[in-house]
Batch of 2 targets.
Target 1
Amino acid sequence: MKLDDVPQDNSRSFEGQKKRLYARDENGEYTTALSSGWEAEDVVLDQAVEEYNRFSREARQRVQQGLSSPLEYHMYAHRMDVTVLAQATGFFRWQVRRHLKPAVFNRLPPRKLQRYEEALQMTAGQLRTLPPEDEPNND
Amino acid sequence: MTDFNHQQTAHCESGAVAALLRHNGLDLSEPMVFGLSSALTYAYIPLVKMGGMPLLAYRMPPGRIIRGLSKRLGIRFHFERFRRPEDGTAALDKYLEQGTPVGLQASVYWLPYFPENMRFHFNAHNLVAYGKDGDDYLISDPTFEQPVRADTAALQRSRFVKGMLAPKGLIYYPENISQAKDLTAAIPVAIRSTANMMLRTPLPFIGVRGIRHVARHMEKLSPANEHYNKLLIGHMVRMQEEIGTGGAGFRFLFASFLQESAGILSDERLVKAADQFTDAGDEWRRFALYAAKMLKGRSELDYDKLATQLRKVADMEQEGYQMLLALKSR
């Protein structure tokens, strides 16, 4: 990559930050240059973020229909899946999956609920409810 | 308060190590740190899943740069991990009071200064803490332009997440750099180690064979699973470009290391090798571009075209590593 080829596509996701890339100057010598983003990268980043957003939206619907506990929504809203949430809480995956059921989640003893509070940095009250649709957490 | 010379780098671990060494009087460039620790690789491990995607790496696992560099240069690093978060915070505060900047491992997701869209559950991010101001830690995060801050609760949280690559509050700093080894001896060993790993690892999903393995996998993707296939392709490009690689999955960083080494060893052949890896890097970038266009729907989703591009990269890299192995015979 030549210095002139360092992309400056002003990525929104960078929030004004720039990242350092390695490129060659006109003499072929390596140096670094700041990039404000690359469109190709934006595409794949948006794709990854959107995938979690989609999971959150679908989970919100299931919660509203009484098919899932709010935990499922909060898990995806924190860009986690069952595996990551299990690791973060120390539960087995089958336990987390059980806790996604409303009936089980509603009876969860405070001791277990606390592990979710810790892992997701939320209060018990927040965990038991859905945030309003336009809340920034609903990313 | 401790003065710390913040410099932005491409990659977090090589950047944090370079910054700590520089603070202790040993000035090595980021590419030199990266190259000397033989950190370049290619690995595709479908058995290990991260967020439903196979593990794909363009560099060796986290921790390799610190350990690799200490091995090659005989620099001992001090490592500390903690069972209790409060102990980790107390130890960090103690080092900062003494005026010792230290490297930390932390989760990207819980670091408050990361842009929202960049926050994922990656637990092996590296940064340097060099001071404390009230409740705020002063942080030199190698992937940011300016020094940043994080409050005590947030930093403790991100240093003690559980899960894959859990940091367990890791603190590290170089202990003795008085008798750093000669670079002219260390460079050829490091280069050979990378070339051997990329060409001779007897596993089909590591090194150049790994790239070809993924090319074959691309061709066999079933058009029926388009959603998953697109996620997989996007994942490949993210691992290659987005995760602080300096461009083209660390290939430009590696080429820069070869170029710098050419000067140190006065070996013209390394200049040629640097050119070769720059060209290979450009082809990796082209792969990313093709992939992004297909994902965006601006060109037709064509798995064969992506596979062909990967094979092209594999051929160019293979030639590059062979050039590096041939250096030995002079």
Target 2
Amino acid sequence: MSASNAATLPEQRKVGAGPTDRRLVLRHQLPTRIWHWVNALVVFVMLMSGLMIFNAHPRLYWGSYGANYDKAWLVVGSTPATGFLEVAGVRINTTGVLGRWIDRRGVVVRRAFPYWATIPSSYNLAAGRRWHLAFAWLLALGLPFFWSVSLLNGHLQSDLAPRRDELSPRHIWDDIKDHARLRFPTGQAALRYNILQKLSYVGVVFLVLPLLVLTGLTMSPAVDTAWPWLPDLFGGRQSARSIHFILATLTTLFILVHLVMVVLAGPINEVRSMITGRFRIPQPPVGEEGQ
Amino acid sequence: MISRRRFIGSLGVGAGGLLLSGCDRLNRSESFRGVLRSSEGLTMRAQRLITDRNTLAREFPESDLSPIFRSNGTSMPESPAYQALIPNGFADWRLAVDGLVQRPLSLSLAQLRAMPTRTQVTRHDCVEGWSAIGKWHGVPLKTVLEAAGLRDKTRYIVFHCADYYGAYPYYESIDLVDAFHPQTILAWGMNNRLLDVPHGAPLRLRVERQLGYKHAKYLMRVQAVDSLAGVYRGKGGYWEDSTDYAWYAGI
């Protein structure tokens, strides 16, 4: 990667980071940092309280209706001795994790998701819903906040939006190879999001999270009455519930990959940059200058 | 010296454990639950804001009916008094309409069936997550309430049921916006037949813009009140009282 395609970030102009600069530069602006940490909390609560709600009926369907006698495409269930996950008719033994597991007191529980994955940790649909439907407001209001602030402060245009040349298959392939070799950008290039980062951030911020909010709203009989286009958009309430679960799974995968990348890229520098905003530009190893 | 991997691993486990026990502790805190609960009012106001009070929930074609509409909650009330009503088709059953009304009523099933009937094919959404589509036949609650004549102080309608959970009878309540909604009916029929016992015979509530637990079955009494505080444990419904379900079940 050459330094010639380095976009000038608004932050860099403020701090004036040069290619061999070892100083701390402002990497993340305050609204980005606030939204990141609020969302980190909110998304964790949403995922874990969502799994509690899922445990009340661990079956997923397509269409408007779906209940115990209807065909489910995903089931988490149990037999007297095992737990299983069944997807499209294929059954996987998940004893100990899904369907049948042992709680903190050593008691066998036959519920879908285990205690360590749910809020609260013991079965309580009412409480799971209280958490989920309260924190949903923070998620739903946080998104338009982040979108509008990012548009106004230029974060969206200069950092998140992929440039045309970055979208060429060759560039994307090169970036995949860099990731596979765990070769992280240094110098100026480390101040920009690479194309895989841009695509995954844009995908989560503008697609996955808003669709989670919309599919969540589609499960509300009152919202469906007000906005009947919502169940039409997703193919019915039960389809919306299925899509909600799939999107939550994608969000979980995103978080896992995101955390792994933070650790690999240098957790202290990365986490500090998201807390104080300050980021130390990583230097290329000796002999690899200009690569 | 502990390895970095083990250190990071134990940090992860420790953070996870803290998060879990922290959430459980918060969940037990009455003031924190109060904060969570306050969003219920926000949700209700927001949903009422985007919905006209007379907007109808979607009605489906009969081809969309669930092949089997599962029953939920009580499928056979245990009380001898209720079970004695079954053999002769609830001919001895009466619905009491009382509380803050001008003219308390005692209505037989035949009288209710002689009143104007609304038929609607709607989606029933359970709080647990499943949905079933059924066809309901019944008299609009509005018709019954107008026959009884609500007093001005009335704010809620309470539905008392024949089924018990332990020491407590099932009951539910709705406000007047939902009580006077055109699709809010006292249903005596389902899928072209009289209501069967698992689905709430002889009479159940349909309140189509809310979740299933509001749709009280085995109705015995409809009571107009100015406050829910004096009804059983005061939160407006059996599940609201016993497990902290939201009173407003629009989502």
